[in-house]
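May I ask for a protein sequence together with how it folds?
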Amino acid sequence: MKKASVAAISIAAVALATPTLAAEKAATSSLIGTPWIETKAQSDLPGPMMIFLPKGKLLIDSCWETYALRTWKQASSKEISWDEDGAIIHARIKAASADGLTLQITAGKDIVERTYAAAKAPYVCPDMKR
């Protein structure tokens, strides 16, 4: 009888853990390959775009700066980091879905929250005033 109880408890534990693991995996998979555009940029210009690519590559672009190809890593299901010219930027994935991404980014002593929306194609930067 004890063996049946232990087995039932083990099965219940796996069943309870599975949705969490599935949700974490879904958050990671929605992060990769989606063009993310910052929704509340710090200026009146369109927000920067980030595309987390497989194999640790990150493409960052904007309508006013030249694109950059960076490296990125995932430390856990909720922690990522990327290299910006030798400075390692750490971020916590606060929320991730097919349509939106919220990151809490650690920049020095500051923690800033950035919200991104999945870009819809076609997307073209607006004409910039010169």
